[in-house]
Design goal:
The chain has 198 residues and is α+β, with helices and mostly antiparallel strands. The chain has helices at 16-26, 32-46, 62-68, 73-86, 166-174, 178-182; strands at 48-49, 70-71, 91-99, 107-117, 121-125, 155-156.
Length: 198
């Protein structure tokens, strides 16, 4: 489980702002499920999804997402992982491949997380942010994800990764604006160890 608790350049939970927020969200609570729920709800509700709020900034590193207050799904998952790990909750990265318009090509990746909770084991959760049409909740062991798979080319990848995908990190670091990223959203048809950021 140590891989799923580590701090990295992107999941920089040792950053003071991230670790202090984690302490605040977990204060006085020894129940890991309740702490995980608190962290999940905070990221879902307090970090604005870039597209939902027409924000221009593109964030990547967890501390940057927290400081700026916005992020695409990928960035929000990276902050959520940092906060969970700071609370000693093993957290990994999961991805879906989804149609951008819901009709077919082009496709893009959607980023979410999995946390390890006793007695449930790995539990996937999606902190992208609620809208009128998309609602996600923390309700283990029942998964409650934002998007359902409806097309043959779409996938919910089974892999739970200790690091975000390299193609995702590169896209976030390269794009100069949200509009630019939206023109080149990351996509993969399969995931293996060579696709991970390290």
């Amino acid at each position: 489980m140590q891989e799923f608790l580590k701090a990295t350049e992107i999941i920089d939970w040792h950053d003071r702002s991230v670790s202090e927020l984690a302490r605040s969200l977990s204060a006085g609570n020894s129940d890991k499920s309740e702490v995980a729920k608190s962290v999940f709800n905070w990221v879902r509700d307090n970090i604005e999804h870039t597209s939902d709020y027409n924000r221009a900034e593109v964030t990547c590193r967890a501390s940057e997402v927290l400081s700026v207050g916005t992020g695409f799904c990928y960035a929000k998952s990276q902050l959520l992982a940092a906060l969970m790990r700071a609370c000693d909750i093993p957290t990994g990265f999961c991805y879906q491949r989804l149609s951008i318009d819901g009709l077919g090509a082009p496709f893009c990746l959607h980023g979410l997380n999995a946390v390890y909770l006793e007695p449930h084991g790995w539990y996937r959760l999606d902190a992208r942010g609620n809208t009128d049409d998309l609602q996600t909740h923390f309700s283990p062991p029942v998964e409650n994800l934002a998007f359902a798979i409806s097309l043959a080319e779409e996938h919910t990848f089974e892999a739970i990764l200790p690091d975000p995908l390299r193609v995702v990190v590169e896209a976030l670091k390269t794009a100069k604006s949200a509009a630019e990223l939206c023109q080149a959203l990351p996509d993969l048809q399969q995931i293996d160890s060579s696709t991970q950021e390290s």
